[in-house]
Amino acid sequence: MNDTHMPDAERRALDEKLVSYLDGELDAAESSQVEHALAQDARVRRELKQLERCWELLDELPRDEVGEDFTRTTVEMIAVQAEQELADERAELPSRKRKAWLLAAGSFLAAAIAGFIAVGVYSDRENKKLLTDLPVVENLDQYRQVEDIDFLRALRAKDLLPHEPDNAPNP
Amino acid sequence: MVVSEPSAERYELRDPDVRLMLEVRDDSATAFEELMLRYQNRLVAVLEHLIGARDQAEDLAQEVFLRVYRARKRYVPDAKFSTWLFTIANNVASNARRSRSRRREVNMPAADNSGSTGAFGLDQLALAASGLMPTRQLDKAEMRDIVRLAIESLNERQRMAVLLSKFENMSYVDIGAAMDLSPEAIKSLLSRARLNLKEVLQPYLDRGQSPPAES
Fold this sequence. Notes:
The structure holds two protein chains of two kinds.
Chain A lengths: L7 H15 L5 H13 L1 H16 L10 H71 L1 H7 L2 H9 L14
Helix pairs in contact in A: 2-3
Chain B lengths: L4 H10 L1 H10 L3 H23 L2 H17 L10 H27 L14 H8 L6 E2 L2 H13 L3 H13 L3 H8 L3 H25 L1 E2 L5
Antiparallel strand pairs in B: 1-2
Helix pairs in contact in B: 1-2, 2-3, 3-4, 3-5, 3-8, 4-5, 5-9, 6-10, 7-10, 8-9, 8-10, 9-10
């Protein structure tokens, strides 16, 4: 492994494989390759053993448990955070209510304007029709006495009927 | 990141800590406390050896738990809970190191590079490893110091990968997820890290001896 005659790239590749082998990260084919190399080469076996022993030495690193103070202060920090979130939410509530009210009022206003325009357009159309038909309505009783539409048309052609607007429909 | 429904369900089914975190998302204080109790020692241990100072490690661990709590409403299980937690821990530690090095640039331009908290400095380790220093038998505490210094000799990324692998038994895929690196990059990172550790530790293993204590 540390053989100076072994090219660097090859040595790096073998080192990576040995480490991955120790970590159980190789697939069956790669594991088999490493095991073959281990069976064939004492230097590879020595390298693997050294890597393994050094890794085991890391168990010497202390892993002390945290004190009760740590748990308590962390819980307190979280409680403060939770309170802060609640306060922020409460502070946002009036503004949220105001937004909802404005939205409702805006919607109502828009609906009212749309309704007003629609009613205006419709009633205008009705009024125009009434205005157009006014001469007929005014003289309806006389027209009914005639009972002959052709006679009425003849009178109209001779301009003997009461004044009609320009856009009056034909009888 | 968009997480598919089956993937989230899979983690929820397999990882009890994911289920606890989902309860935290629904504002369960007891679930959060349970998660904290399960992870506080593990998190502080990793951070302590990553940063090299116990007090700061505890402060950072609290910061990590606070971030977990703040992020609860956005939590979607797209990995094991431990992977997610150590991703946050890695970010928090990186930020702390950055701000610490900025402060050091401003305040302590000639700071001691060893960062040693034990009985030996890295220069002594190198000398001892060369076999030029008189030796004596190592005791357990000294061996612990040497291992600690060997860990401190690694760069930050190597150290994090080693700690997650050794302390948390995390796979390359999970370490990669926590450190935002590919499994291939982790493979190469861990390989270099373990060779570096071997370079420092092997002389002591061969001889079972340490450099003499400083007079």
